[in-house]
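haha ok so turns out i had the wrong file open the whole time. this is the CORRECT one, sorry everyone. sequence first:
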Amino acid sequence: MKKTIAVLCAMKGEAQPLIDRMTSLEDESACGFEIYRGKIEENDILICISGVGMVNMASLVTYLSVKYSPECFLNYGIIGGYGDIHKGSLIIIKDSVNINSTMYDAAPQGSGTSLSRARLVTFSENIDNSPVIYKSCDKLIEVATSVAGEDVVHGRLGSGDVWNKEYDKIMQFYNEYGVCGEDMEGYAMYQAADKFGIPALSLKGVSNNEILGETYDYSVMEKLVDFAYSVIEVL
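then structure:
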């Protein structure tokens, strides 16, 4: 059955390899977003570039939901790995948490700053609650798992308008919240898609890991695009 699948990337460089594989390509860019409609197998594909950041991604998902009502959202892109997740790894994201939504406990003047006083929360009408974790669609996870190779793992994505390089902060997210890596858009996709009741899944490739001293390497994108393409083929 023909489906409309919205594929989301933060950057044009991430999207271009998939755009190059699509047929019947048409430019439907609007509202400051690059949007291309085409086909992969029998599926109608919207491949869309949000720009970097949570607001950009949430805005794009809202626009696409209202205009196109896609069957699902599929996000892919590169991330920084946490803990023992090596660069070059591919990750099927099982769920996502906002690592920028943080509350710091009160401390007197002169006491400095400390991660021990910080915790992730979800702010709702000035009341701090436990962080809301948005889950990937189980059926989409099953599809991705069915075409995954042995080097693909499952994990929790942390997202925020932040680029963390501090060892202790990264390990706090890794140990306390089970985050396997971070990006700047994934959580926003899940949160906005949830508002419209549209299933969502994120696939990530690890480009670097500060904890393991593994420096940035963009080459993981090639096999990530292959993986995303394989998932789209069987959706």
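The CA atoms of residues 64 and 77 lie 19 Å apart.
again sry for the mixup
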